[in-house]
Write a structure and sequence with these properties.
Largest sheet: 4 strands, antiparallel
CATH topology: Methylamine Dehydrogenase, Chain H
Radius of gyration: 19 Å
CATH architecture: 7 Propeller
Helix content: under 10%
Structural class: mainly beta
Strand content: over 45%
Number of strands: 28
CATH superfamily: YVTN repeat-like/Quinoprotein amine dehydrogenase
Order of helices and strands: HHEEEEEEEEEEEEEEEEEEEEEEEEEEEE
Shape: globular
CATH class: Mainly Beta
Number of helices: 2
Strand order of the largest sheet: 1-28-27-26
């Protein structure tokens, strides 16, 4: 056991050392190597958060096994799988602002500008909570297990069952259509015009036109794709079973890179400049331009969200806390 721990620690050290080595620039003879200027998100500078993230992280207690995480502009919401609740946490100070009962085994949360939608995986339903006070505004059933959703400005898109995605009108939850995608749809993202779905069981992502659900294309990625995020130009996908992250050009689905992600990557978030990948046993920061590992933190994590200054992860695997970096 001891040798195993040492091996893991050594691997992590070598990964970080390798990343630092790749960053090093040529310097004048006799001087220490130079590192490039920090690639900081301008929004963080404006918020006087120009320094690197607190890589130790600050923990805040929520419900049991928080898998999904989202930001509503002021607060962080977590879907707590094991106790079928949702927690609301103040992003500024981590204050617990409420715990709300939802359906069985919630996994995903998404904000629509006024309300938080929760996917209840074992109840085959989604619940709509008013963000201001957590009031339950309705629960809407589907025909199978439901997973991680996205919002397109008017509608909530919900992967469900073996190969379906539902389009629910956010104003009243009306189902506007069910669309066939790949095998095992599990997470969704919006690129401004189209919906992207990760199909966990066939190693693909599906691109759908948001206006009418027309399938535009299906693109191969790695094994077991799960989390997905849009950076303004590219889609980033965490391939959990392959230990990689794929980068696809959103305009046409062309693969522009596949990057090693040590362990089992889970969720993806964009911080305005770089890509953060949750997973086990690491949380990673990848450079947005080339996928190079910039930061590696030993922190087993599931859901992930960016609040404009900090990264939040749900430590969903047997824990009851969120960590703020």
């Amino acid at each position: 056991m001891k040798s195993r721990i040492i091996a893991i620690a050594t691997s992590a050290f070598l990964l970080v050392a390798g990343a630092l080595s790749a960053w090093t620039q040529t310097s004048p003879a006799g001087q220490a190597p130079l590192l490039p200027a920090p690639t900081t998100n301008p929004l963080q500078i404006a918020l006087l958060r120009w320094y690197k993230a607190n890589l130790t992280g600050t923990k805040f207690t929520v419900g049991s096994q928080p898998y999904g995480v989202c930001f509503d502009g002021a607060n962080i919401w977590s879907a707590n799988y094991a106790d079928s609740t949702v927690s609301k946490i103040g992003a500024a100070d981590g204050a617990n602002l409420g715990t709300f009962k939802v359906g069985t085994n919630p996994v995903g949360v998404v904000f629509d500008g006024a309300n938080v939608w929760v996917s209840n995986s074992s109840a085959n339903s989604v619940t709509k909570l008013r963000a201001s006070d957590g009031a339950n505004l309705g629960t809407f059933g589907l025909g199978g297990a439901v997973w991680w959703m996205t919002f397109d400005g008017s509608n909530v898109w919900v992967p469900w069952g073996n190969n379906m995605v539902a389009k629910l009108r956010a104003s009243d939850g009306k189902n506007l259509g069910n669309f066939t995608v790949g095998n095992g749809p599990i997470a969704a993202a919006f690129d401004g015009s189209n919906i992207w779905i990760t199909n966990a069981n066939d190693g693909t992502v599906t691109k759908m036109r948001a206006s009418d659900g027309t399938i535009i294309g299906t693109f191969a990625v790695g094994l077991g794709p799960l989390g997905i995020s849009f950076d303004g130009t590219y889609m980033w996908i965490a391939n959990r079973d392959a230990g990689t992250v794929s980068k696809l050009r959103a305009s046409d689905g062309t693969a522009v890179g596949t990057f090693a992600s040590p362990g089992a990557p889970y969720g993806v978030a964009f911080d305005g400049k770089n890509i953060w990948v949750s997973g086990t046993p690491y949380l990673l920061e990848l450079q947005g331009t080339n996928g190079q590992i910039m930061t590696i933190v030993a922190s087993g994590s599931a859901g992930i969200a960016f609040d404009g200054a900090n990264i939040w992860v749900g430590n969903g695997f047997g824990s009851d806390w969120l960590t703020k970096f």
